[in-house]
Amino acid sequence: xxxxxxxxxxxxxxxxxxxxxxxxxxxxxxxxxxxxxxxxxxxxxxxxxxxxxxxxxxxxxxxxxxxxxxxxxxxxxxxxxxxxxxxxxxxxxxxxxxxxxxxxxxxxxxxxxxxxxxxxxxxxxxxxxxxxxxxxxxxxxxxxxxxxxxxxxxxxxxxxxxxxxxxx
Length: 168
Known about the structure:
Blueprint: H1 14-18, H2 21-26, E1 35-38, H3 58-61, E2 80-82, E3 87-88, H4 99-108, E4 124-129, H5 138-150, E5 155-157
Parallel strand pairs: 1-4, 1-5, 2-4
Antiparallel strand pairs: 2-3
């Protein structure tokens, strides 16, 4: 049986209080059935509050390793795609590339696995990373957005900025 999600709201969740997230939760609006693409740095697919929150590509999970089982042009993209290395999303090893995980947590952190709740804790995250600490490109961002749309994302988070951000 599926465990009921009871979103958590603490004094540290000023953003959720500001947008009145609890009002939506009380009406049963938890993001169920919504795929949100995080087009950013990579998202930690092993994080306790995120690991069960991904939009999993079942055709790739249940397919053959090294084969593009769903015919979308991306081999083994079961948890998203890394447009920097042109490879399936991977476990993050560089703790400096945390922004994608931070954003994913704001969106869909599972409150049953930790101390906080995402704004839409039943939404699913589709990661399409195109940035890291040293580079990213507008072209890769566009490919990531196209990928997200083809995978069914109806919402795209693109919170890019900073001193090295392209004017484009």
